[in-house]
Amino acid sequence: MTHLNLGRINFAPLVPQTVGFDRFFDAFDQLALDKLPANTFPPHNIVKLDDNNYLVELAVAGFSEDEIEIETLKGELTISGKKATVDENRSYLHRGIGTRAFKKVVRLADNVQVDGADLENGILTVKLVNIIPKEKLPKRIPIASGGNNKVLTSTKNKTLLQE
Questions:
Q1: Upper half-sphere CA count for residue 43 (Cβ side, 13 Å)
Q2: Domain span at residue 70?
């Protein structure tokens, strides 16, 4: 990791107090170093339904299901679209509905997976779910001292000692 200072956020003080967050810091470094212009077409929303469920909504009026491709690779959700045919014989007085090709990339956390997609009324909705592996769920650690086995249980704001 070469750059720890991301604009106004300096991660350097956190490094000595964290283990395994290097990928997190590297991801933010990469975002800061990306020189790509903001991709605003098509307009999109990212919606948090709850702690583990999200939606990515894209306004794709004029595109059919066959003209849109959705894929995930190496922690990135890529949504792209390309019109199959364009009617060149049509004469427009005003052309405000975008039909140009697009590619939208959303970076995903390690545990976030695509759970499906729907296209309805010109809005493409991609459902995302955060799947927490068993090894990342809270677990009880027994404390052994002098033959006594006690279990220390930690909840959000309380610590309980069970014998």
A1: 6
A2: 37-85+95-133
